[in-house]
């Protein structure tokens, strides 16, 4: 199984290459190792597109792979990106999906305003709780 986080909209949005780096820690045995990786980005939804379409979910038509972490700085980058590119009242969807045979069929949905898209909301998106022993998934509908 593989995880993909998506941004879905009713119209095309511009891509955004990472301008920041983030450090996360990975546990290897008894050690924790810092790993540097690219930060916030919005990229073409290509690699997992066929697998996501095969899930049969009702999604907004313009979909992008979203790389975002549950951090205050990245929440600000995402809010700024959406505020600059979307119209007031417009809605976008943020999806965390697992593609593969063992995924839960139900995807819990939540709604909120752009102003409420903070570190805690991103934690809910990026790390949803297990669903009946299966990896968690979710959809956040954000009103700009």
Question: Can you give a write-up of this model?
Answer:
There is one protein chain. By secondary structure, this protein is α+β, with helices and mostly antiparallel strands. The protein has three helices and eight strands; from the N terminus they run ββββαβαββαβ. The strands form two sheets. It has a six-stranded mixed beta sheet, with helices on one face. Strands 2-3 form a two-stranded antiparallel ribbon. The longest helix has 14 residues, at 72-85. The mean pLDDT is 92.
Key features of this structure:
single chain; 144 residues; alpha+beta; six-stranded mixed β-sheet; 38% strand
Proportion of residues in helical segments: 10-25%
**Could you report the average pLDDT, rounded to the nearest whole number?**
92
Query: Percent of residues in beta strands?
Result: 35-45%
Number of helices, counting only DSSP H or I runs of 4 residues or more: 3
> Gap between N and C termini, in Å?
32 Å
Principal-axis shape: globular
Order of helices and strands: EEEEHEHEEHE
The radius of gyration computed from the alpha-carbon positions, rounded to a whole number of angstroms, is 15 Å
For the largest beta-sheet, the strand count, sense and barrel status come to: 6 strands, mixed
Classification by helices and strands: alpha+beta
Could you list the spans in which at least 5 consecutive residues all have pLDDT below 50? none
Number of strands: 8
Query: What's the arrangement of strands in the largest beta sheet?
Result: 4-5-1-6-8-7
Oligomer: single chain
